[in-house]
Amino acid sequence: MARVVERAREVPGVDHLVVATDSREIAEALAPWGVTVVMTDPAHESGTDRVAEVARRPEYAGCDIVVNLQGDEPFMPIDAVAGSIARVHQGDAIGTAASPLDPAHRHEPALVKVVTDAAGRALYFSRAAIPHLRDPADLPDARWWQHLGVYAYRREVLLHVTTLPPCALERTERLEQLRALDAGLSIGVAFLDRPAPAGIDTPADLAAAQLRWRDFAEVSS
Q1: Of 181, 13, 186, 158, which is closest to residue 91 (Cα–Cα)?
Q2: Which residue, 52, 82, 81, is CA-closest to 149?
Q3: Are 185 and 94 in contact (CB under 8 A)?
Q4: I need a labelling partner for 37 at 20 to 30 A (CA). Which of 50, 96, 108, 117 fits?
Q5: Strand-pair partners of 21
Q6: How far apart are CA 12 and CA 131, in angstroms?
Q7: Is cis: bond before 131, omega within 30 of 0?
């Protein structure tokens, strides 16, 4: 675990690591490792709201960029986090990341797709297969990008977004990032050159993650 914490602190652009949680169990598990834990309101509807609560605290008022990396994404690549931060430094209000998606999985609603403009700014996120393949003959040249669950915000943008009500598209797709797009905020996407690591959404995902974590811990020890 010590190596995991050290690795998190090695992400370019990250100078302070905080775990925001409403779980005493999580806080107690992290206590031996010197990680700053902030207990938050258990009534939050999203991880973004939880992170914003921490960002509003006076001791974090000097943070110019706040990164939201959720606990169900334990294997998020460092370059996805660093790339998200870089997009904010390049001028985007929000930064995130995406990985190439196997076309065979483009119709899976649990895998969120993103399409961008030529500058890498998100045009739309969807659980549907975007772009739509109108002519099957175009499949060899078509590409789909899977959105990764990491966000970097300018602090003032994070605080603003969490005051906005859910928009119609967000309610339809159940995708919170559409609220920011609907409000006219730019979301820059950092593109990885390899498939996305598995997140944890189901009991099977958890079992697989526990096996992978055991192997990682043995190598890092």
Answers
A1: 186
A2: 81
A3: yes
A4: 96
A5: 39
A6: 32
A7: yes
Contacts of 69 (CB under 8 A, 6+ apart): 76, 81, 149, 150
Q: How far apart are CA 218 and CA 152, in angstroms?
A: 31
Domain encompassing residue 148: 2-203
Q: Does the residue 169 lie in any domain? A: yes
Q: Give the C-alpha separation, 47 to 150, whole Å.
A: 11
Q: Does the global pTM surpass 0.85?
A: yes
When mean pLDDT is compared across 18-32, 97-111, 177-191, the lowest value belongs to 18-32
What confidence score (pLDDT) does residue 1 get? 47
Residue 158 within any structural domain of the chain: yes
DSSP run (H or E) holding 113? strand 113-116
Cα 134 from Cα 132, distance rounded (Å): 6
Length of the chain, in residues = 221
Q: Does residue 2 surpass a pLDDT of 60?
A: no
Ramachandran bin of 120, using left for φ above 0, alpha for ψ from -120 to 50, beta for the remaining angles:
left
| Tens of pLDDT, residues 148-195 | 999 999 999 999 999 999 999 999 999 999 999 999 999 999 999 999
Long-range contacts of 200-203 (CB under 8 A, 24+ apart): 200/72, 200/73, 200/74, 201/72, 201/110
Task: Judge whether 216 lies within some domain.
Answer: no
**CATH, residue 145:** 3.90.550.10
Number of domains in the chain: 1
